Amino acid sequence: MAKVVMYGTAICPYCVMAERLLRARGVVEIEKIRVDLDPGKRIEMMGKTHRRTVPQLYIGSTYVGGFDELSALDRAGKLTELLAGEGSRQSD
Known about the structure:
Strand order of the largest sheet: 2-1-3-4
Mean pLDDT: 93
Oligomer: single chain
CATH topology: Glutaredoxin
Low-confidence stretches: none
Largest sheet: 4 strands, mixed
CATH superfamily: Glutaredoxin
Number of domains: 1
Number of helices: 4
Order of helices and strands: EHEHEEHH
Number of strands: 4
Shape: globular
Radius of gyration: 12 Å
CATH architecture: 3-Layer(aba) Sandwich
């Protein structure tokens, strides 16, 4: 299974929904980078993604985007293959 990295905060409902969706698709481990605890990590996230909202997700080397993009991938049936390392959407 591809590595999942999520930039997020403790009080973000979309981060919770993203984690719930990923867990439902079999993801056991999510590397969480808390941008609310380390302002430098928010700057890092913004430099990579050009966005300031959370969550921001990477699956393997593929930049997915936020919860809306993650959910759209799932609805399109492409999330499972991306998690398996079989597809890519866009890179950073």
